[in-house]
Write a structure and sequence with these properties.
Layout: H1 5-19, H2 23-42, H3 46-64, H4 68-86
Helix pairs in contact: 1-2, 1-4, 3-4
């Protein structure tokens, strides 16, 4: 779990930026976070890879709609839960 702990904190910080309306900064940090998470999920079991893919699609869909609170929720709750499960 220690390898994902900093990434979990980054996801929560990014979610906070979206909630504060700092969407440009948050979006840049989110892309960086997703780039750093990709190798973790590439090595994960198939069902976790599928959950990761679905989460990415939902998050980007909400971002396109400029639904910043939904993006924040996906990052803080769904992504964190998936990272915690993957890091075990």
């Amino acid at each position: 779990m220690s390898e994902v702990a900093p990434l979990i904190e980054e996801a929560r910080a990014c979610a906070g930026l979206f909630r504060l309306g700092r969407d440009v900064e948050a979006a840049l940090r989110m892309v960086d976070l997703f780039d750093r998470l990709a190798p973790l999920f590439e090595a994960a079991p198939t069902h976790q890879q599928q959950q990761w893919g679905a989460l990415l699609m939902e998050t980007f869909s909400r971002q396109q709609l400029q639904d910043w609170l939904a993006v924040a929720d996906y990052l803080e709750y769904e992504l964190v839960a998936l990272m915690e499960h993957c890091g075990q």
